[in-house]
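Predict the 3D structure for this chain.
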Amino acid sequence: MQKIRIPMNSFQYGEVSDSLIMRTDTAIYAGSAQRVENFLVMAEGSVKKRFGLRYAASYNLTYDASNPNKSHLTHFIYDDNEQYVVSIEHQKLRFFRLVNSTTTSLVDTVTADTSNAALPFDQDYLSQITTAQYGDVLFVCHPLFAPRVITRTSLTNFDVSTFTFDSRADGKQIYQPYNSFQNQAVTLDPSKVSGDGATLTTSVAYWDLTGSATNGNYTSSKHVGVTIRYHESDIEIVSVQSATQATGNIVSPLEVRLAVIDPLRTTAGSALVEVTHIAHGFAGGEAITIVGATAIGGINTSNINGARTISSTIIDDNTYTYTAGGDASSAVDGGGNVKIGTHAPTRGWSEQSYSAKRGYPAAITFHENRLVFGGTLAEPDTLWMSKIGQFFNFDVGAADDIDAIFLTAATGEVNEIRYLVSNRDLQVFTASNELYVPTYLNQAITPTNAQIRKQTPFGAEFVEPVSIDGATIFVQHGGKSIREYLYTDTEDAYTATSVSTLSSHLIDNPASMAVVHGGFELPDSYAFFVRVGGEAAIFSSNRAEKRASWTRVTTKGRFAGVVALRNRLFVNVYDEYNKLQLCEFSGDVGLDMYLFKAVSNNLVDVSDLYTNTQVVDVVVTNGTVESHLGSFTVNSANKVDLTAYAGHGFTHAYVGKKFTAKIVTNPIDVNAASGPQTGNVRGVSSVILDLKNARSLKVNGRTFSSLSGFNGKKEVRVLGYSRDPQITIEQTDPLPLQVNGLIAELII
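Done. Predicted structure below.
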């Protein structure tokens, strides 16, 4: 019989999957455990019992297994003193203000927008909502409704309105994106050049016929309210009569500015003027009006401009002729900035990109002082960037540096854009690939240099990516892996390395995630993941040491969402009574859904959350010392009676639900002279634990309750033999515990 001391100097890799059970030769095996529950991995490799969950607010919502996603959490941060948790629910918004470190208050509930219309949020698709904030405004996007603008009007009030694009000063043109959804050979024929009630005829079936016709009109058509861009003029659709005919109001006279300057050409001794008009779409004999042309070839302005008729013979797709009011004296090119006034059939028309017909942006962010939209149902792989500093103006103009930018990810397949992240570059996460819009030599993105580059082929699930330590972590399409999207100078490209390979069992099918930077009163960054089934996990990393650490998080109930506000982390939790509560990870006390209350006449009022007959645990404090009094039943007045402990000098109490913190080591093994002992019967005679601020714990079922903030090494005798001997460290009391490492004495 031989005794060998096996050091486990840290738990820096957290909980790993059973697939590592035979890798006793690796450093990861020695620095991890089979189960790490309700602990945080510290930067130095020790594990500290997680903080409790402070009750913040109730929703008055009950768990429904068929649709548990009743609240999508996001944040609204104006400054350090004005921060809000925003709950997006079915046709409702709730705003919880962080009053101070211990108080979170519901300050506003909104159920209608400024036009008194119901909010478009539906609980069936809350998980696909994306948001972006700038100053006092929060933008909300989803492909099934027009973007909404949430505006903070005071400390306790918010308004909701529909995103509205800027328009020209005279109101004649809307600065929004347009696209030619029709085949380029399809023509649009307006019945007149100005006014309301213009008949718009397409050469093939085009108009939406949703619903049934009433008096010959499809008033429920998804094209109703849509703006058509006829060259540079806008026409608003007011009704649809058939698949080829609609009625519209002409917002601005139908004029076409020709694409080139000086597009006219004269021939000496002839009244015939040749016009360069790219993709004009005209037929011979159509009526036009020449506008703004200067005198040319001896023909004065009154004779070169005005109502004209295109010659019966069209030269080609880009050129035609008309007869001027006089013969030219010379053959020259000229005319200046010419416009053609016409309502003739043309291929030069398009439709607004965002509508009930075409869908709305799925993704949103701010990047380089531009508002960026990404992906609609009809244009899933397109990016739209506003003009610099003008977030409601998407006018491409003359492609100057400040003008709007439209980009399509032409990567050989349709990349459905799901999320946009402003980081080192503009990062684009799609259903099938990870892309980015590069910034060159620290120069701003402009219409002339903007491009989309494909990087990695994994795709993103419907969980919003978050930034951590210079990288962006995202859930791979399918929900089986968490990847770190990171630019490396050595590769001059982005990589997407999995950080969940060793702990994949903890992150299967994530529903939401958030990152706290320097949170939990600790200097490190942590990512919190909530799974669809209500389980949760915490991730931390040390890239320099190539370390990724995962631990599991449990509570009495189930997690239902998470959001971070800088260094504060809030979660939605269905408690053990199936009621949805908003809680904050806060306080070095091992209680969940806890209330911190003053003790008055030996009574603690818990009516904020708990009612008669419910069982709670109580930790009391006099400001410096905390003691666990045990479990209590709430009385008929919704109070906890501490009369039995009168005279003990405590002033306040934490009242909530205790949780278990547990570490189960990997099987204790060693490579002896005869080889690995895996599968052989062996025993553990003792364990030396290195502890910090330990108040109570169990080791392999043996209880140590007399610890009082113990710091140092504690030896525990452990007897028994097994083919896979393990050490279980457990704490059920709501008190602090930190385990730095251990040494096990193995008998073989």
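The longest strand covers residues 682-694.
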